[in-house]
């Protein structure tokens, strides 16, 4: 459903947020190991997300990635849109460019409701919610 870049970004942001609740900044090696991502790939993703303000970074011996408290309220939809665009929320289920209300594909009506439900779920899902569920061991991040 999401690109590999988006999957790694989501896992990394949730992991960083979980670690930072203890005021711990997290290095690339630690992030890559714990979310099962290639180091160079996650480094590039996090550099981009840092430039866009989704995560913060600090250099030096006590450096690493961390999250400002305000970023804990970022929705998963915001991250997905930033990385993968909004095609997940607006695109055709069959990938047809000309699919529309006036020129629907065979899946149009069914897929429209799925897209809407997905949009609502991702817009109401915040990073903090995932951190809380991980802390309560209701969910797990490791693959």
UniProtKB/TrEMBL annotation:
Listed GO cellular component terms? Answer: cytosol
* SUPFAM superfamilies hit by this protein: Winged helix' DNA-binding domain (SSF46785)
Q: Which domain of life is it from?
A: Bacteria
Q: Which InterPro entries match?
A: Tscrpt_reg_Rrf2, WH-like_DNA-bd_sf, WH_DNA-bd_sf
Listed GO molecular functions? DNA-binding transcription factor activity
Q: Name one Pfam family in it.
A: Rrf2
Q: Which Gene3D superfamilies match?
A: Winged helix-like DNA-binding domain superfamily/Winged helix DNA-binding domain
The protein, known as: Transcriptional regulator
Q: Which organism is it from?
A: Chryseobacterium pennae
């Amino acid at each position: 459903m999401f690109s590999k870049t988006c999957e790694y970004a989501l896992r990394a942001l949730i992991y960083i947020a979980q670690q930072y609740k203890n005021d711990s900044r997290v290095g690339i090696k630690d992030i890559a190991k714990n979310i099962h991502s290639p180091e160079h790939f996650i480094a590039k993703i996090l550099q981009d997300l840092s430039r866009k303000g989704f995560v913060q970074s600090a250099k030096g011996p006590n450096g690493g990635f961390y999250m400002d408290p305000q970023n804990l309220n970022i929705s998963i939809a915001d991250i997905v849109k930033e990385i993968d665009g909004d095609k997940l929320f607006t695109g055709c289920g069959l990938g047809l460019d000309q699919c529309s209300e006036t020129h629907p594909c065979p899946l149009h009506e069914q897929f429209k409701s799925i897209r809407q439900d997905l949009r609502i779920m991702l817009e109401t899902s915040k990073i903090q919610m995932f951190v809380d569920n991980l802390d309560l061991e209701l969910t797990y991040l490791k693959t």
